[in-house]
Structure formats: structure tokens, C-alpha cells
Fold this sequence. Notes:
Blueprint: H1 3-7, E1 10-12, E2 30-33, E3 37-49, E4 53-54, E5 60-61, E6 66-70, E7 73-74, H2 78-86, E8 91-98, E9 101-108, H3 109-112, E10 119-133, E11 138-141, E12 157-171, E13 179-185, E14 191-194, E15 197-199, E16 202-206, E17 219-220, E18 230-236, E19 244-253, E20 257-262, H4 265-271, E21 275-276, E22 282-285, E23 288-297, E24 300-308, H5 309-314
Parallel strand pairs: 13-21
Antiparallel strand pairs: 1-23, 2-10, 2-17, 3-6, 3-10, 3-12, 4-5, 6-7, 6-8, 8-9, 10-11, 11-16, 12-13, 12-14, 15-16, 18-19, 18-22, 19-20, 20-24, 22-23, 23-24
Amino acid sequence: MGWNKSFKTLLALVLMLCLVPGISLANEETLIPMGDSIGIQMDLSGIYVTSDVKVGQQEWLKKGDIIRQLNGTDTKQLVQFERALQKDSATMILDVLRNGKQETIEADKSLIKRVTPFLKDRTEGTGTLTYVDPESGTYGALGHQIIDSTLQSAPSFEKGAIYLSEISQIKKSSPGIPGYKISSIIDQNKFLGNIQINNVYGIFGHWKNAYNKVLAEPLEIMQPFELMIGPAEIYTTVEGSTVEKFTIQITKIEEEQFHILLTDQKLLSKTGGILQGMSGSPVIQNGKFVGAITHMFVDEPEKGAALFLKTMRTNEK
């Protein structure tokens, strides 16, 4: 089965923008592989409508609309929207961005007060930290784009941050049913790094230098042509906040990614296979850092795909 066909059966472990400094892979031979579970928070660039909702006799807010103003007041955050609702006015005029075009909607005052449960200004998720580059002070995680589960798209965002999290429970994977981690942020006041980029190769940003206790020793980056079919390891977290090492097999190698099979019986017993939230877990072979887990095969959760670290690094911008 070819990759394109196989890819249709994969489930992205999605949870769920300025440029980082330019990076020359040739000048950076090592990176620190991580494997820590992270909580991800992103403040969206406006108030998003999460479902179609009626706000007037003939007027609707549509899923994906971005509310810009209410009665002339800027409303980038829900708290601003709620304040504007309190002002006495017979009608409510909404300025929204719909499919890239500005629109004005006249809403009924009684109906507009009921829309708050269908609005959001933040998206959150969990994943796995892939690497930290101590030379450039940057990090990479996930190996794929964050897609908001409600909006079913990658939303634009104002700012974001990643936090160290701990896992309290595991919902095991089984054929056809992806499992997941249940985790929580350890300390909301201590973020690991900011989020500057969210693209199809992962999330990237600046590492907070003051928070270095989770750092391990750097490993040499493996070039794709060096990867061999055979045994390898992943670093990931499946209990608390402790990163553990588990055995896998590299089963297939392609241009930008490779396939893996979980073989570690301890890991399989605990998780049933790859979990949602495990994307970003570093892959190591022969002591070299080669890539990150990105997807699972839904019908065979012990199998999955991983992105070459070289591909992830060269698409940090």
C-alpha cells in the first residue's frame, strides 16, 4: 500500500507567527531530544464563532466567523465582547470577518446575549516536546500543525505558549479507537517557551532559558540516508512527567517520513499503541536523533509514521 493511500487512514494526533531566526542545519550538528508532555495554549486573533447560531430574524453568525466589533467597540477577546453586551442599546451591530470579507450584522439584543457559549478566543491542547536547540534558544514540538478541533482548521493566533504537563490517566488505544492522555499543566506561571509558528511540520518558538531542568544531553542529528530498517527507540511520557525510553522498529523509509512499529511490551501494555498527545516524541537510532512521531494508523494503533528531523528543522519558518 502506497503512502498516499495509507495516509488517508491515518488520524492526525491533532489536538488539537512571526519568523524564528534563520537556522543552518549544516552548522548545527546536535539537538537535545526531549519527549516531555506539554500543555499548549494559544490566544486566537479574535473571537471565533464555533457553530451556526441565529442572532436576528434573518441573521446568523456562521461557524468560523471572526467577530471584530460590537456596536463599534473592538472585541478581540471574550471579556471585551461581554462588556460591550452590557451597554444599553436597542440593537446590536456586529462587524464580522466571514470567508475573508467584512460583513455587518444587525442582531437582536435578546438573541445576541445567548451566543457566548458558541464563541471562543483561545485554543488548548496537549502534545510532546521534540527538541530544544541550546545554540539558537529555540524548540520544536508535535511534528504537525495544531488544528482546532471545534473549528476544524488551523486558526490564526496572537500569541501562545507551551507548559510542562503531567499525565494522570491513559485511555488505551484499540483497533479503530485512538487512545489519549489525560494531563494537566504543572505550573501555569512557568511556561517553557512561546509559540511563534504553527505549520504542517510542527509548532516552533523560543525556549525560555530560565527553565532548563528538563533538558537532557544533546545528540547528533541523523541524516535521512543513515536511517536503517530495524530497531530504534522513542522518548516519550506516559505517566506523570517522567520521560521514558521505549523500543520500536523502523519498518519503512520514505522521502520525508518513515513508518514505525511499537515493540516495547511495557508501553503496549500501558497504552495499547500510539496515543493522541504522543505526537512529537523523538525517535533515536544508534545513538542519533532522527525524527519525531506524527501519526498513528487507526486500525493498527501499534503502527504509525514519523517525520524526519531534517524535514522538521528546515521548515521551522
